[in-house]
Design brief:
Number of strands: 10
Order of helices and strands: EHEHEHEHEHHEHHEHEHEHE
Radius of gyration: 17 Å
Number of helices: 11
Strand content: 15-25%
Shape: globular
Strand order of the largest sheet: 4-3-1-2-9-10
Structural class: alpha/beta
Length: 248
């Protein structure tokens, strides 16, 4: 059983990529919505949340884990997960980014991810990296704020990089692909040549290579807080696969 752990809805971007590449995989997904967003939490808080997430997934028979939240990647790499069969977001992304060696890349991420320096460590020898935290965005996406509100947050952040030139924009938070269209529209006027890179495909590809993806294609969703926003996001999945939802 493959377990996917995120602070809420962000990991659904990784789940979607994995379902496309491994439709028969049995998956248990834990969205820790009660403690979301993770992006403003301290390293100690994140380490404790990682440990709790691993416990929840283990109790539901997950033996191979995808930590589908960039904000916890540092804690995972530092050993907080205590699990060997685990994939976090940054290393698969670094391997994928070798195809763009030497290019100028803008990383969009939470404050926790930027502060941890995990992408600087992973990419410094591969690309010319610039970073832009968007502290409010993951929470706004999780809370299903209006398109106008999401657009305003994205626009205000990107305007800080006016006059810069980038060839790639790397989405360093798994929530961000959920509003990828908005990000792309807002960056067109500033970085018209830039291409958005979503790490979810690389993470899913590594899971297919390393994990047991044979099964009956079931998905169990576990959430620590029930929200209409999360239910709305997973509703399309119920049309295509065997899904169950539990509030724990």
């Amino acid at each position: 059983m493959i377990g996917i752990f995120d602070s809420g809805s962000g990991g659904l971007s990784v789940l979607s990529a994995l379902r496309k590449q491994a439709p028969k995989a049995d998956i248990v997904y834990f969205g820790d919505i009660a403690n979301a967003p993770y992006g403003g939490k301290s390293p100690d808080e994140l380490a404790a949340l990682v440990q709790n997430g691993m416990r929840v997934l283990a109790e539901h028979s997950a033996t191979e884990i995808i930590a589908a939240c960039n904000s916890i990647a540092f804690s995972v790499l530092a050993g907080a997960a205590g699990h060997e069969r685990l994939i976090e977001m940054t290393r698969p992304t670094a391997r994928m980014m070798r195809a763009f060696a030497g290019e100028r890349v803008l990383l969009l991420a939470t404050q926790a991810t930027i502060n941890a320096g995990i992408y600087r460590d992973a990419l410094w020898s591969i690309v010319d990296l610039d970073e832009l935290p968007i502290p409010e965005l993951a929470g706004a996406i999780e809370d299903e704020k209006t398109a106008v509100e999401i657009t305003a947050i994205v626009r205000a952040a990107l305007l800080k990089k006016t006059g810069k030139i980038y060839e790639k924009v790397l989405l360093g938070c798994t929530h961000y692909p959920l509003v990828g269209g908005t990000i792309e529209r807002e960056m067109r006027g500033l970085f018209p040549q830039a291409q958005i890179i979503d790490p979810a495909e690389a993470v899913a590809r590594e899971a297919v290579e390393r994990f047991d993806c044979e099964g009956s294609g079931t998905v169990t969703f576990l959430i620590s807080k029930d929200t209409h926003a999360f239910r709305n996001r997973i509703a399309p999945l119920f049309l295509e696969t065997q899904c169950t939802l539990q509030v724990i």
